[in-house]
Design a protein that fits this description.
Helices cover 41% and strands 18% of the residues. With 451 residues, the protein is α/β, with parallel strands linked by helices.
Length: 451
């Protein structure tokens, strides 16, 4: 994908604030923290995604002549400010958890330090990118966990919110454990395996279902998966069995069958019974149609003999949790730690670090601390950009995918549950030094502002 995100992709108030900063020569370093405040229902962790997209965009940050002409047409900004924007590039530092890191609420996942106008202008893009990518990765991994080792593939492209969203869903679902995508453009761009079967319209376009089945097998003898529910699933299964026997006589094998509607659990059992009775235990059963982690878990708990799940709409739009309650907030300006005291939306001051403690190979507790602190645990945030330049090359998708799988093995089982207990939250604490700083900053604000 093209990683050149227009600098104009920002809210107007970012530009008006930046204009004031410019007028008052407020160019000192500002540190902003990105974090998520709360979990969607039944979620207990997140997968951090979007970092590579953010870094690529920051390296290419600039206003085009067309952007500046549009801003001039608004009649809001002085020519001298527009001249400032013309030469503006991102020159800041970025500290972040590696892409694919498991994280929890109230933890700084990414911190950006840059001259105040720069750090302010990128706010909208940073939130947009990290929110959507992390949301989809976190939603998709729940289907992987619910499938308990069964294959899961991405079928979301036709109902996601636009082409860019469909591509991001394919990438993120692959990162967290999906085996393939139906989205061929995503396959090309990201080198993700692609897969697909047939639609009901294919069956309907032939004079008979049996003819449709046999014709597809003639053209794709090594990759035939037959859609069974166009007319009657069990009748179609008998036709699939007949075709499978013909393929066997030719030294070939029917790869699988797909169920897309009806009582999937019951039908999967009946189809499996018919296939096995016909001596076709190798034919896989693939199911699709309105699936998510809850439906996958239900089907498997009922003993449905399913080999693979095609997951689409409900993951592609994160149907039950369509947004993350995330924020990008100022934590320090010109060496002065700052906080927000709004009810229910307090923030933490200063440049921070997150330390992760483990016990017997499992995540035990995270500690949010000041960046200069040190503890006998792994620090999660690392410096990934300095003076506007990456410090290391973008990792391959397989590298991120393996990193996520290793992290999932360290996540306590109670946090992986599709419907966890209400009390089962991962502990995230604040270091005593950070707590003292927060208290001191709050007291100073109350002394100066709340008299």
């Amino acid at each position: 994908m093209n990683n050149k995100i227009p600098a104009l992709f920002t809210d107007l108030y970012e530009l008006t604030m930046a204009a004031v900063y410019f007028e008052r020569e407020m160019f000192a370093p500002a540190t902003f923290s990105f974090f998520v405040r709360s979990y969607p229902k039944n979620w207990r962790f997140f997968i951090f995604s979007g970092l590579e997209e953010v870094l690529s965009a920051l390296e290419a940050f600039s206003f085009s002549e067309d952007d500046l002409a549009y801003l001039e047409s608004l009649g809001l900004f002085k020519p001298v400010f527009l001249d400032f924007l013309k030469d503006l590039r991102f020159t800041g530092d970025v500290w972040a958890m590696p892409e694919g890191t498991i994280f929890f609420t109230e933890e700084p996942v990414l911190e950006i330090t840059a001259p105040l106008p720069q750090a302010q202008l990128i706010e909208t893009f940073v939130i947009n990118s990290l929110c959507f990518n992390s949301l989809i990765a976190s939603k998709a991994v729940r289907s992987v966990l619910a499938a308990n080792g069964c294959t899961v593939v991405d079928f979301s492209a036709r109902r996601t919110h636009g082409i860019e969203a469909a591509l991001k869903v394919a990438r993120n679902s692959f990162l967290v454990g999906f085996s393939a995508t139906s989205n061929t453009l995503a396959g090309k761009l990201y080198r993700i395996p692609v897969t697909g079967t047939m639609a009901h319209s294919f069956i309907e376009s032939f004079s008979s279902e049996a003819e449709a089945f046999s014709t597809f097998a003639e053209v794709f003898p090594e990759n035939t998966v037959l859609l069974l529910d166009t007319y009657d699933t069990l009748t179609a299964t008998k036709k699939a069995i007949a075709l499978a026997k013909k393929l066997e006589a030719q030294g070939k094998r029917l790869k699988g069958v797909r169920l897309d509607s009806g009582d999937i659990g019951y039908l999967a059992k009946e189809v499996r019974r018919l296939l096995d009775e016909a001596g076709l235990p190798y034919v896989k059963i693939f199911v699709s149609g309105g699936l998510d982690e809850y439906e996958i878990e239900r089907l498997l708990k009922e003993g449905a003999p399913i080999d693979a799940f095609g997951v689409g709409t409900k993951v592609g739009v994160s149907a039950d949790a369509p947004y993350l309650d995330a924020a990008y907030k100022l934590a320090c300006y010109d060496g002065r730690p700052v906080v927000k005291l709004s009810s229910g939306k307090k923030t933490l001051p200063g440049e921070k670090q997150v330390f992760r403690f483990k016990k017997e190979g499992l995540f035990q507790q995270d500690l949010v601390a000041l960046r200069e602190e040190a503890f006998g645990a792994r620090p999660l945030l690392e410096k990934v950009m300095e003076k506007g330049k990456r410090l290391k090359p973008e990792p391959a998708l397989e590298e991120i995918r393996n990193y996520i799988q290793e992290a999932l093995e360290c996540l306590p089982d109670k946090l992986k549950a599709v419907k966890p207990s209400e009390a089962g939250f991962y502990p995230v604490e604040m270091s005593s030094q950070l707590a003292r700083l927060q208290k001191a900053v709050e007291q100073e604000i109350r002394r100066k502002e709340l008299i």
